[in-house]
Amino acid sequence: MADYIYTLETRLSPDQQKAVALVLDAAKAAGMNLYLTGGAIRDMITGFPIRDLDFAVQGNALKLQKDLERAGSVVGDADDETRSLLLTLPGGVRAEVAMARSEKYDKPGKAPQMAPATIIEDLRRRDFTVNAMALSLNEGSRGLLMDPFNGAADIEAKVIRVLHNYAFLEDPSRMIRATRFTTRFHWPLEERTQARYESGKENNYIEYIRSSSIGYEIEQLAYEDDPLSILKAYEREGWLKVLNPRWSTAKVDAGGLSALMKTRQQMNELGYTPDVAPAVLYFLTDRMGDKDIGDLRRAIPRKDLVEAWKDLEDNAQSLAKRLTGKEAATPSRTWQLLSSARPEMVLFLAITARNQAVAQKIKNFFTKWRQVQQKIPLPEMTELRITPEIPNYSKIANDVFLLLLDGKLRSRTETLRYLKPLSPPPPPPPPPPARRGRAAKAAAAAAGVGPAVPVAKAGAKKSVAPAKAAVAEKPIAAEKTVVPEKTISPSPAPAKLAVAAGVGKPSERGSAKKPGKPAKPPKPAAKTKTSPKSPAKSKTKPKAKGKKKGR
Ligand code: ATP
Fold first, then answer.
1. Is residue 474 one of the residues assigned to a domain?
2. What does the pLDDT look like over 117-155, one tens digit per residue?
């Protein structure tokens, strides 16, 4: 039997693992059983990235809200009808925690009758077999996969199959979802499902779609990796006008969208994980009017996403302004400013900045300035005992990096001259070699080593013992002090240094100490006329110009 918990743990990111533990704690405290369901299980089995976490609890999920908020989660929506929470858990992990429920449809277009249910009944209300699996996270059954519709086989066969003949009639938003999944995964609809889908289209089931489902599907577009291809498929199938009658692919800023995805990839490689969803919506609706955008925003259930989308331009503009001001007068200050800015804002500005100086600074931040790291003389720092083991290592490494960035340390010699006074004192020398013979005995006796027996009274053999004890102690003492000198550890891992210098993964960087004011650099040995000009000293005083659309 497959070990799904092991698979899950290896497939979830560290933040997602923490999120699972956090929701599990909250459910346990409330005495509710918890299951991971939906796309997370599908993606876990297929090997696609796990994008969000859908949980089902046996009980009222709304009761977990306070505990989850206390643990740092942001609630984007709390739905009384389905008793579910849309959450952003710490680390930006998107999740939904819903009450396990049954759904009974009386009439197309009408909301189903819902009732608390077992997890198996809950799986029966789902859209497709590949999404109708659940993994128990509970003691006693932890790791048990529930797959009543054999979704695993459909994953294997790479097909999208509805659970029953009325799936599209009961909830026409499943036709939109079918298009989304077939486009994303390049998996076809299973034959009968395809026939039901065609019949649903012909008979215009879509007119019975509920407005809450429209909002939910608009929102889902924001999280697609290739939203434009989904939008094109929606347009082809006639679903885009259902989401908004004035939406079309012609309203998309395709260039902006593609630049967004490319820059996101570049940032991911540098260790940043910006949330692109608000910017995706921004570019997908770029040429739509304010009213239509307002309608789309009102429809989206996740309010934190809507707020982030609304604030995008203003926040980017204020960052652009700061980047043209005193705060970013030198490369090092710009570096610090961009390092502390939200990655989402840096990403958005990287694409939309019209001011050349701003764009250049962001470009330098991602590329050129990172190479300055190579100039940090790690082996020499180790020789100077400036290693990660010393308490102020992060600060020293960071200061050197910033000084190098500003061209204030222009050569290796200058850098070493700056570093030398910061070298911690060498360890004390090893104690002198042990004395032997009478003197040693006397010394040992004087030091109280060995049995408290007067030397004179002790037998010849016994009297050796104290001296032996004293001798035996010395190598230990000597080892303690001498070893660090002898076994100078290899250069600290560049990653560690990068973290210290604020250039590593942002998540790691958070733990590094905040850089203090850089120490004064040494005066150059020989006077040279050419001092490197910092970008801030360039004559132009650029103005920030975010892409204002006045939304
Ligand atoms: P992804 O998040 O990767 O787009 P997902 O399958 O997680 O895919 P969500 O929209 O997050 O999709 O929905 C979570 C789960 O809720 C689905 O996997 C499915 O089981 C269920 N679900 C969502 N919408 C419907 C629907 N209209 N009818 C039935 N079940 C649905």
1. no
2. 999 999 999 999 999 999 999 999 999 999 999 999 999
- Residues 466 and 446: their CA atoms lie apart, in Å, by 10
Q: What is the DSSP letter of 154?
A: H
Domain membership flag for residue 42: yes
Q: Establish if 37 belongs to a structural domain.
A: yes
pLDDT digits (tens, 9 = 90+) for 181-205: 999 999 999 999 999 999 999 999 9
- Count up the domains in the chain and report the number: 2
pLDDT at 432: 81
Residue 139 lies in a domain: yes
Residue type, 400: V
Residue 21 pLDDT > 90: yes
Q: Which of 36, 53, 54, 185 is the best mutation target for the ligand 1 pocket, counting ligand atoms within 8 Å of the beta carbon and taking the most?
A: 54
The Å distance, Cα 39 to ligand 1 centre, comes to 6
User: Could you tell me the residue range of the domain that residue 48 belongs to?
Assistant: 1-157
Decide if pLDDT at 435 tops 50: yes
pLDDT of residue 164 exceeding 50, the answer is yes
Where are the strands (E) in 175-217, listed by range? none
Choosing from 406, 422, 438, the residue where a domain stops is: 422
- Nearest protein Cα to ligand 1, atom 9: 39
Protein residue whose Cα sits closest to atom 1 of ligand 1: 39
Spell out the residues 6+ positions from residue 351 whose beta carbon is closer than 8 angstroms to its own.
256, 259, 260, 263, 279
Residue identifier of the C-alpha nearest atom 26 of ligand 1: 127
